[in-house]
Design goal:
The protein is mainly alpha-helical and 398 residues long. It is built from 14 helices and no strands. Helix 9 runs parallel beside helix 13.
């Protein structure tokens, strides 16, 4: 491994473990206060709406300032938030509002860090390094996701807010130090004379120049709302079928293992196969796999197929980022990622409404079929754009 990757990967590792545990623990701790289901749901809704509203501002922020400094700022904010929690614990005045505020801060800073990391990777590394780094990064992402999940199973029963806050403070500090040690080759971007508002408004122009190109990328982004949709649909389906909760844990583990396996071979896949075709095939494949779940919705079948869903979803996401690293202008990368995130969040919100409607009419099983149709149609639309050469970027990345 190239040693210059290590500090950056270390920062992502500690950030993933810290954020993963905290975002798992805070809703759980809120629920321990009694009948708090509605409050937790409203907190999640507030976080989602805040993320949607602030995404364009965050995106412009990423294109305007040092991306390394933003990654460090995120960790500093999370350290301060964890320390605030510890202070309230010491004063024995922790309320549900303090916990909700902490969840809101971690949610928004995680969103900012995720978009910043994509732009930072494109800016800081060379084209011939993207495939290799993508492999290392995916392994770290999935390892921390699986690690946080495994630790959460144990620590949710043993730890209180004090232990989780202390762990988050230490882990975020280690992440901050790692990012500080990461070498950074910042490229010249916006002139100081260009106002923040002007750059914010310019986002619309960027997408208007090549609507088919960005439509191709946006359709590929449906892989993430599909995952979050399944993460809500499957536990409801299992519950209705009186299936043990261990099957849902197995589903989550199966997805993570599939994505992790993709991380180990993604360098070979990116160098041997066209990214656009991979994106289309992966989205189409996920649609077929979900269709198979709809036709045979047993827990064994769902968990088994999810291994392939995890692999294909991971491949689709990495291929899209790889294509963007090679082709889009790094000056606008933050705003491009921001625009795609708005589309993804909008689709995600619609999917939650769909689950609520299906649950109300006791038709959760139909949810698999609906998702399958959406993904297959999206992949066919991508194919149509591809045939018309709409997937090609007219201006080269810089």
């Amino acid at each position: 491994m190239n040693t210059k990757f290590l500090p950056h990967l270390s920062g992502l590792f500690w950030d993933g473990i810290s954020s993963g545990l905290v975002m798992m623990a805070l809703p759980w701790l809120l629920l321990q206060h009694g009948d708090m289901g509605l409050f937790v749901a409203l907190t999640t809704l507030t976080c989602t709406l805040s993320s949607f509203v602030l995404t364009p501002i965050f995106a412009t922020f990423i294109d305007r300032y040092s991306r390394k400094a933003i990654l460090m700022l995120v960790q500093a904010i999370q350290v301060i938030t964890a320390l605030i929690l510890l202070v309230f614990v010491e004063e024995q005045s922790v309320s549900i509002w303090v916990l909700a505020f902490a969840q809101w801060v971690f949610w928004l800073t995680n969103d900012l860090a995720w978009c910043t990391n994509s732009a930072f990777t494109q800016e800081n590394y060379q084209k011939h390094e993207y495939a290799t780094y993508s492999s290392y990064q995916e392994i770290v992402f999935q390892a921390t996701s699986l690690g946080a999940g495994s630790l959460g199973i144990v620590f949710l029963e043993l730890w209180g807010i004090t232990q989780f806050a202390a762990f988050a403070a230490v882990a975020s500090t280690l992440s901050l130090i790692s990012f500080a040690m990461t070498s950074y080759h910042r490229r010249q971007r916006s002139q100081a004379s260009v106002s923040f508002v002007s750059e914010l408004v310019e986002s619309k122009t960027v997408f208007a120049k090549q609507p088919r190109f960005y439509a191709f990328l946006a359709l590929s982004c449906l892989g993430y709302p599909a995952l979050t949709y399944l993460s809500k649909l499957i536990p409801i389906h299992f519950s209705e079928q009186h299936v043990s909760a261990s099957w849902f844990a197995s589903w989550s583990l199966s997805y993570g293992i599939g994505a992790l396996l993709c991380g180990f071979i993604i360098k070979t896949l990116l160098t041997k196969f066209a990214t656009e075709k991979a994106m289309m095939i992966c989205l189409f494949s996920v649609g077929l796999l979900v269709l198979a779940m709809a036709l045979s919705p047993s827990p064994q079948m769902i968990v088994g197929l999810t291994l392939l869903v995890g692999f294909c979803s991971s491949y689709n996401r990495i291929a899209r980022n790889y294509k963007m690293n090679l082709e889009v202008d790094n000056h606008y990368r933050g705003r491009i990622d921001g625009g795609l995130k708005l589309f993804s969040t909008f689709a995600q919100s619609i999917s939650y409404v769909m689950i609520a409607v299906l649950s109300y009419y006791n038709a959760i099983g139909l949810g698999f079929m609906i998702l399958s149709v959406v993904l297959i149609l999206a992949s066919l639309l991508m194919q149509r754009i591809y045939v018309r050469q709409g997937h090609l970027q007219l201006s080269s990345a810089c």
